[in-house]
Amino acid sequence: MTDRIPATEYDALLLSDTPMIDLRAPVEFAKGAFPGSVSLPLMTDQERAAVGTCYKQQGQQAAIALGHQLVSGAVKQARIDAWLEQIQQRPDTVLYCFRGGMRSEITQSWLAQAGVHRPYVIGGYKALRGHLIARTEQRAEQAEVLVLAGMTGSGKTDFLLKRPEAVDLEGLANHRGSSFGRRLTPQPAQIDFENRLALALMRHQRDQRGALLLEDESRLIGRASLPLTLFNRMSQAPRIVLEVDQTARVEQILKDYVINLRAEYLARDGEEVGHIGFAEQLSSSLARVRKRLGGQLYQKLDQLLSTGLEQQQRDGDLCAHREWIAILLSEYYDPMYHYQMAKQESEVLFRGTPTAVAEYLDQRS
């Protein structure tokens, strides 16, 4: 077994979902890591900061000595035990630090003394991160990209999840991509989002799925920002448009943002607290578009929303919810969609129902 993983093996490493021990300090890990990595640092944030200060003031040898002093005895053994436990659970685990330097070499050496031999990544996090950025740029430039458009509530995400050639950007960003799109769990850090996206694009290429099908998105999906090269390519890519009648669109929004969201809150927080959290999220989402709606329309929708929340909690009646959703679609989202589509210069390849669009895509593949 090789004791180091070179750049030529990065693709195989990343696409194999090999578990990785991230040896960087927790503050470094929080800024971004790789899917499948677990934070088991060689040094804590405080220890790393102390060693860094020593390096600046006294030089490398003094910093190394301080590091060994801080991570020694029972502290050292506890960290080795944590690495050994991870490797026992997943014997294929590999190691990485920031640059594939001293932290990786020290950890590898200590593990070897314990009778366990695991490789580390040459270049570490920095090189792997650069590799994923380059892969995203490459796919954005070389892949045939198709963009799935459609009015709000058309069920674009549900449609994409059934298509083998699709990459679900909203799923990767953990956000539905609208003012109402926040989920219960937080969005990934920007770097984590970009890393997940790169891996999804690499898997798409590996599996030879043909054209890359992406949902029509603004550059920001919640607070996750699409890489500029990919966003520019999407802006110019030909479109396929889902056409769904308003009744079905209202039901789609009702399912996603009212029924399912409330169920998630109740499952997490219980009936009383869950309904309060759900109601607060819906109300704050509506408030975010208050200026664009105008005062009069906002007041009307806010009142209907309040009525809908009361009726839903009392007896499960969803009529008022359907009413405010229908008004919001027809008076806010639909005009905005038509305006944005009118500005688009890219070709529309096909329009149709979800069934017709699926048939069209099947024929292209």
Automatic annotation (TrEMBL):
Entries under Gene3D superfamilies matching the protein: Rhodanese-like domain
Keywords: Selenium, Transferase
Rhodanese domain span: 14-137
Enzyme category, top tier: transferase
Active-site positions on this chain: C97 (s-selanylcysteine intermediate)
Sample GO molecular function, one term: tRNA 2-selenouridine synthase activity
GO BP, one annotated term: tRNA wobble uridine modification
Alphabetical list of SUPFAM superfamilies matching this protein: Rhodanese/Cell cycle control phosphatase
Enzyme Commission number, as recorded: 2.9.1.3
Quaternary structure, from the entry: Monomer.
Described purpose of this protein according to its UniProt entry: Involved in the post-transcriptional modification of the uridine at the wobble position (U34) of tRNA(Lys), tRNA(Glu) and tRNA(Gln). Catalyzes the conversion of 2-thiouridine (S2U-RNA) to 2-selenouridine (Se2U-RNA). Acts in a two-step process involving geranylation of 2-thiouridine (S2U) to S-geranyl-2-thiouridine (geS2U) and subsequent selenation of the latter derivative to 2-selenouridine (Se2U) in the tRNA chain.
Family statement: Belongs to the SelU family.
Matches recorded under NCBIfam families: PRK11784.1-2, PRK11784.1-3, tRNA_sel_U_synt
Protein name, per record: tRNA 2-selenouridine synthase
Taxonomic lineage: Bacteria, Pseudomonadati, Pseudomonadota, Gammaproteobacteria, Alteromonadales
